[in-house]
Design goal:
Elements lengths: L2 H9 L4 H5 L4 H7 L3 H7 L8 H36 L9 H24 L4 H6 L2 H11 L8 H11 L4 E3 L6 E3 L1 H13 L3 H13 L3 H18 L1 H6 L4 H11 L5 H8 L9 H19 L1 H9 L9 H12 L10
Antiparallel strand pairs: 1-2
Length: about 325
C-alpha cells in the first residue's frame, strides 16, 4: 500500500485496516483505546492524548467557575459602591460601613474559591495546577505538557489574597490591614515579566470598580502616612521604653500589668504611656490641620466623625452634593 494511497485514506477518515482487513476485532478494539493509534491510524485528527484533553477541559471548567465568582464579586461591589456614592433609603453606607462591606465582599469571594478547591469534581484539575501535578502528568505520559493557564493562575493568586483585620502594635487599634493586603498583591504582580504585567493589569482592572481603585490610591497617598505617626513616634524612645510600649498594647498583656506600665515614668518625669499617646494625638491633629485633603478623606472613609478645618468642611459639603466626584481617574 503506497504512502499516497494511505494519505488518501486519511483524508477520507479511513484506516488501512478498513480496506485490507486482517486485524481481529478484539485487537482492533484494543488498539482503538490507544491515543497514539488514533493519531496515526485512526479516523479524524486528535491534537493531544485524550487524558490530557479531558484534563484541560476540566481545568477550563474550573477557571470558568472562578471567573463566575469574580463576576459575582464585581456585581456585588458595584451595588456596595452605589450605596455609598448614590445612597438611597434602601441602600446607603457610611465610609466605615463601605470599608466593612468591601472587606466582606472579598472574604465571600475567597470562601467560594476555597470551597471550589475542595470540590471533588475539580480535584484532578486543582492537582494538575500545582508543580507536583505537572511533574506527575509528565511522568505518566512520558512528555511535558506545557500549561496554557499561567495568567489565570496569577490572577487567581492575586484575588485569593485575603483582606484581614490586624491590631496595630503601636496603638492597639484594630482595623483592616490594607497595607499588607495590597503589598502581597503587588508581589504577585511583580513576579510576572513586564510583558505579562501589561496583560495582567488589563484583566485585573476589569474585576475592580473605580471606587475600589480610588480607595487604594487615597489610602496610599494620605491615610497610610496618617496611621503611621505612632510608629514614627515610637522610634523616638529608648529600647527599654519601646519594650514597655509594645507590652502595653500586646493582646496577651493582662489589665493588671497594663496598669503597672501606665505608672512607669520617662526620664522627663512624665508617665510613659500617657506621653506616648499624647504625642500621637498631637501629631495626627497637626497633620489634619496641615492637610485639609487628608482631613477630608479621613472623614469620607469613616476614620473621623468631624473635619477639623474649614477647608475640609467645604470639601465635604461639595462631596455630599456629588459623591461620585471622589472618584479618581486611573492612569
Amino acid at each position: 500500500m503506497s504512502e499516497a494511497f494511505q494519505k488518501e485514506l486519511w483524508k477520507h477518515h479511513q484506516r488501512p485496516t478498513d480496506v485490507v482487513g486482517g486485524i481481529p476485532p478484539d485487537l482492533e478494539a484494543a488498539l482503538d483505546e490507544l491515543w497514539q493509534w488514533k493519531v496515526y491510524f485512526g479516523r479524524g485528527t486528535i491534537l493531544m492524548p485524550p487524558e490530557v484533553s479531558d484534563l484541560k477541559a476540566l481545568i477550563d471548567k474550573y477557571w470558568n467557575k472562578v471567573k463566575d465568582f469574580q463576576d459575582d464579586r464585581l456585581t456585588s461591589q458595584a451595588e456596595i459602591d452605589q450605596g455609598f456614592l448614590t445612597p438611597s433609603k434602601d441602600l446607603h453606607f457610611t465610609g466605615d460601613e463601605w470599608r466593612n462591606e468591601y472587606a466582606s465582599n472579598w472574604s465571600d469571594y475567597s470562601s467560594k474559591t476555597e470551597s471550589l478547591k475542595e470540590d471533588r469534581e475539580f480535584a484532578d484539575a486543582v492537582q494538575a495546577l500545582t508543580p507536583e501535578g505537572q511533574i506527575e502528568m509528565a511522568k505518566r505520559l512520558g512528555f511535558n505538557v506545557a500549561p496554557d493557564w499561567p495568567l489565570n493562575e496569577a490572577i487567581n493568586l492575586y484575588f485569593d489574597i485575603k483582606l484581614e483585620k490586624a491590631v496595630d502594635p503601636f496603638t492597639g487599634d484594630e482595623d483592616w490591614d490594607y497595607l499588607t493586603f495590597w503589598i502581597k498583591r503587588e508581589s504577585v504582580r511583580m513576579a510576572l515579566t513586564e510583558e505579562q504585567r501589561l496583560e495582567f493589569d488589563g484583566k485585573v482592572r476589569k474585576y475592580q470598580t473605580p471606587m475600589e481603585m480610588t480607595f487604594r490610591k487615597v489610602y496610599g497617598s494620605y491615610i497610610r502616612g496618617y496611621k503611621a505617626t505612632s510608629r514614627i513616634i515610637f522610634e523616638s524612645y529608648n529600647d527599654e521604653e519601646k519594650a514597655l510600649i509594645k507590652e502595653f498594647y500586646a493582646d496577651t498583656t493582662t489589665l493588671t500589668r497594663k496598669e503597672e506600665i501606665r505608672e512607669v515614668l520617662t526620664d522627663s518625669g512624665r508617665k510613659l504611656i500617657s506621653e506616648y499617646q499624647s504625642k500621637g494625638t498631637d501629631a495626627r491633629s497637626a497633620l489634619r490641620l496641615t492637610s485639609p485633603t487628608l482631613d477630608f478623606y479621613l472623614f469620607v472613609f469613616g476614620y473621623i466623625t468631624k473635619p477639623k478645618t474649614p477647608e475640609a468642611r467645604a470639601m465635604v459639603d461639595a462631596w455630599e452634593a456629588d459623591r461620585s466626584s471622589i472618584l479618581i481617574t486611573q492612569e
